Amino acid sequence: MSNLSDLRKEIDDIDAAIIELLAQRMEVCREVADLKSQSNTAVIQPQRVREVLTTRRQWAIDNDVDPDFAEQLFRILLSETHRIEVAHDKKFDKPTKVADVLVSTLDAVACRIDHVVVAVANLAAASTFLASIGFSTTITDDAGIVVAEGGGVTVVLVGPGDKAVDKHLQEHGSGVQHIAIEVLNAGYVQELLKAANVPLLTDVVVDEHGHEQFFTVLDSSTGVQLGFISRTGNRVPMNGQNVRALFRALGDA
What pLDDT score does 83 carry? Predict the structure, then answer.
């Protein structure tokens, strides 16, 4: 029976192989960049992007990998591919060794911006604006909450008509209500921020799907309120009722 050290060594070997495959992929991307530059072919090919994302999602499904997770990885790869194609003929100093890039404990556990919640005085107008620039907008189970998604970016629009939302709009007007940062473990980050004397607004709230989330107080110097979320359960669409409940909890805190 394998022990923890053996399994970690196996993970290290797999990760090393992934890096080698990434290096091969990027080298092919450089060759593609050369060909495109010779034929004046546009760098961005939307149809090719759609093809890549669609086929990779299916490959993920066929291999019992979450397709949304796979799409996130390949969007990052496509972004790096674009950077290489644009900058392939520009000289720069390549790093030769690893720097100490993790400057804090939070730096080690924070993953990405999960979503941004925006309170709006006119939900229809806000939805129309985001749709006009290419976001896909969906009314949630709560008619006063719309989720706008595009390329892995999620914006949650919360309209008026609820006491907590109306109070927020009266005090702050339309705008970002909070930024939710995905972290590996919400409870761990909460203790980390407590130790750093960061003012917290709520304890960790766990919903029925296993999402753990907590909030800092609104920072007066930046006007920013942060939420930290750990998606420990199954990946599910944004739930309007959960957003509404959290909004009210913030208003009552």
Answer: 85
Tens of pLDDT, residue by residue over 151-185, are 889 999 999 988 888 988 998 899 998 999 999 99
DSSP letters, 103-138, are: -SHHHHHEEEEEEEEEE-S-HHHHHHHHHHTT-EEE
Which of 20, 55, 87 is the endpoint of a domain? 87
What's the domain count of the chain?
2
Q: What is the C-alpha separation between 5 and 94, in angstroms, rounded?
A: 33
Q: E strands within the chain?
A: 110-119, 136-139, 145-150, 153-158, 175-183, 205-206, 211-215, 226-231
Q: How far is CA 220 from CA 11, 21, 172, in A?
A: 44, 46, 12
Strand partners, 216: 200
Q: How many helices (H) and strands (E) does the chain have?
A: 8, 8
Average pLDDT over residues 53-82: 94
**CB 72 within 8 Å of CB 60:** no
Q: How far apart are the C-alpha atoms of 243 and 250, rounded to whole Å? A: 11
Q: Which residue has the higher pLDDT, 193 or 232?
A: 193
Q: What letter would DSSP give residue 40?
A: T
How far is Cα 57 from Cα 70, in angstroms, rounded to an integer?
6
Calpha distance 50→48 (Å, rounded):
5
| 25, 40, 78, 138 from 32: Cα distances, Å | 11, 12, 13, 37
- Give the integer Cα–Cα distance in Å for 238 and 127: 16
Q: Is the CB of residue 45 less than 8 Å from the CB of residue 82?
A: no
For residues 109 and 47, membership in a common domain is answered with no
